[in-house]
Amino acid sequence: MHAHARAPHPLRQALKSRKDALLEHYSQHGKIDPLLRGLSETVDSIAAQAWHACEMPQQLALVAVGGYGRGELFPYSDVDILLLHPDALDESIASRLERFIGFMWDIGLEIGSSVRTVDQCLSEAEGDITIQTSLLEARFITGDRALFEQFEGRFKAALDPRAFFRGKQLEMRQRHAKYQDTPYSLEPNCKESPGGLRDLQTILWMTRAAGLGNSWDELYQRDLLTAREVKELRRNERLLKNVRARLHLLAQRRQDILVFDLQTPLAERFGIKPTAAKRASEQLMRRYYWAAKAVTQLNTILLLNVEARLFPQSSGITRVLNERFVEKQGMIEIADDDLYQRHPTAILETFLLYEQIVGPKGLSARTLRALYNARELMNVQWRADPENRRLFLQILQQTRGITHALRLMNQTSVLGRYLLSFRGVVGQMQHDLYHVYTVDQHILMVVRNIRRFTIAEHAHEYPFCSQLIANFDRPWVLIVAALFHDIAKGRGGDHSKLGMTDARRFCVKHGMDAEDTELVVWLVGQHLTMSQVAQKQDTTDPEVVRRFAEIVGNERYLTALYLLTVADIRGTSPKVWNAWKGKLLEDLYRITRQVLGGEQPDPHAQLKARKAEALSLLRLYTVPEHAHEALWDQLDVAYFLRNDAADIAWQTRHLSRFVNTPTPIVKGRPAPIGEGLQVFIYAPDQPDLFARICGYFERKGLSILDAKVHTTRHGYALDNFLITDPGAGTSYRDIINLVESELAQRLSSQSPLPEPNQGRLPRRSRTFPITPRVDLRADERGQYYLLSISANDRTGLLYAIARVLAQHRISVHAARINTLGERVEDIFLLDGRGLQDNRLQIALETELLETLEI
């Protein structure tokens, strides 16, 4: 006989069918509160039945705590319960409790349980604010009600509302710091990130502890909120709750982070359709960011209001700032509640004052609330008011506080109401794989970076930029350009060109003179040019520099573009900037400035100067006087123009006695600029040499930042690489000997090229793949071919590309490796001898595309 599978317990079936019915109703009607309440009530009923089914002793109480205590359960949230008992547990009660907890799990409830006496609850709450918070929301389910009431009375008596407020405030600051202090993270946590559900819960915990109210309605009755604020809070809370519930249902588990993979399916659950200009996920995230921003604003107002009730300061007004504003407890406060209604220009005056007055650390709750309620005043007439235009330009022209003022203006929605084109990029995501901020946050980050150039305390970060901006007339013009450089993102079309129109309109309306207007408009249109020339073109070619000098035209434009470019790249992502990129930009700046100053690039004079400098360095190393000649006779002009004197001297010192060596020579040293290792390889040339070198670095987990590949007159390769460890755990000095010996050995053993590792794409690249692009074309002189590659980055990609080139016996003459976050844009200069054959070109492009698409 076969044993029959045991039928599920009726309570398990009841729980499942009720939960399914609630979820079905939610998917039909989309009403979130009945779902959360219904799930909580279902668990109450099932838990009470389980309690009686297990015949629990009468002197115990079953209590809901945490979110479950609040009467809200999300589809996959834990069910937190407290099993309250009057005194020490005897063995039989302990085993009954154990059986009850096991039974709860058996019937399908994922519970988090604690077993405590009233005394234990109080002592644990005293030492841990998380436990204290969880118990604050305790709710009786079944059992001994008198025991629960005893707990409730003693807990309330022991609670110190002020200490609790300070504790939660500190906890909130720490939590916000953990989530980068911004609601605008590209993968926010809808529960824990700033502007998430936890912020709203924290306020209600504080007011509940202080006896000021347990709901938004009660806070309205106590004058802590206005009717409009209650409406806004409810609307945004509803969106956040819907996001969280649908995330749970999509992931089929507890999931609070809006990860890239789920953003599109989640948008579809909300019924959002993609448009020509915006993906569905971008539209959803914009809604989310706007809700999180509103929650952050209202949260700040409420926090300040609750603090004022709990800590009524007798000091009152610290000082009168003018007839409209006072300072109160370190905050700027409006003198009258209807100030903005009577004088709408005072809205912008608030932020100008914030920049100009030393001392105040922010805006008071009264001011923030008045700004929040003055949004309808910020209309077409308000934007066109000459006084407002004067004030706004003054805000941008101040010598201090600009970054903080603009951030505050963005948080309070004033910036987007004044600059409608800025409002268009608030919460606008960027899926280019190297920006890690929304467009509005990136713009404000670029403004911050330009401001930092002017601050003495930050001069060590950007010495050259600080020096340039100190001599730059009217640096505030750069702030205007920074505000507009990406303002047309997400509209479809070239954002640089579209942004020029917005920038010109702004400059004209704000009465900027023609000279500054032209500079701002030009900067917006050209803000990507300098990084593209520096990172993708051969700046040792006088023709490249001459063309770039023609674009910039004069030194003021060059300096402005350089400062904006550095600020822009540094404002995309912490991963994109490195010292090597800094050097490329600085070198391009210096050489272009010489050309603009009338110095025509003279390769012969440059060659002579570089050789002389390299020789003087060799003398410092006591290298014999003519020792360099054997090597230098084999090197052409291009080598001396593409390497600086220090590199030439370093390579010459190690190679002067081994010019015709049959065995490869590998030498390394810590990179002269920034982090990393500089390695040169000298070996008889062969078509697959570049691929072998790339393959070795890939196997070692090292990234190649730059490669200069040179072939001597007598057929030797002299290749120079700049490499870094992406894990950044490497002490580069410690691995020099290992790299030198292993790589030399690898190049000596003529083994076949290994298969490339199928490196896995980073998660973000899988979600937002970019179409790989391969472009092969002859250079202007027809001597070389330029191969441009754009693709998602992955481990081993460079080796896979080099291997395809090696298989077609194509030599790499130079490589410019450019990693932009999770995207690569690499350029290779290839020996053109075999590439005139059209069939070979097509085969090569096809194979490369196949390699990139893996």
Properties at a glance:
Beta Polymerase, domain 2; transferase; hydrolase; disordered N terminus; alpha+beta; 4-stranded mixed beta sheet; Four Helix Bundle (Hemerythrin (Met), subunit A); 17 strands; 6 domains
Short description:
The protein is an alpha+beta fold and 854 residues long. Helices cover 55% and strands 11% of the residues.
Structural notes for this entry:
There is one protein chain. The protein is α+β, with helices and mostly antiparallel strands and 854 residues long. The protein folds into six domains: 10-159, Beta Polymerase, domain 2, CATH 3.30.460.10; 161-312, Four Helix Bundle (Hemerythrin (Met), subunit A); 314-418, Orthogonal Bundle (Hydrophobic Seed Protein); 439-596; 603-652, no CATH class; 660-853, no CATH class. Helices cover 55% and strands 11% of the residues. It has 39 helices and 17 strands. The strands form four sheets. Strands 13, 14, 15, 16 and 17 form a five-stranded antiparallel beta sheet that branches. Helix 9 runs parallel beside helix 13, helix 15 runs parallel beside helix 18 and helix 25 packs antiparallel against helix 26 (514-526). It is globular. The two termini are 54 Å apart.
* Largest β sheet strand count, sense and barrel closure: 5 strands, antiparallel
Count of runs of 4 or more consecutive helical residues: 39
Helix and strand content put the structural class at alpha+beta
Roughly how much helix do the residues carry, as a percent range? 40-55%
Total number of beta strands: 17
Dominant shape: globular
Overall mean pLDDT: 89
- Supply the number of structural domains: 6
Beta content comes to 5-15%
**Gyration radius, in Å:** 33 Å
Distance between the termini: 54 Å
Quaternary structure classification? single chain
Given as residue ranges, the uncertain stretches (5+ residues, pLDDT < 50) are: 1-5
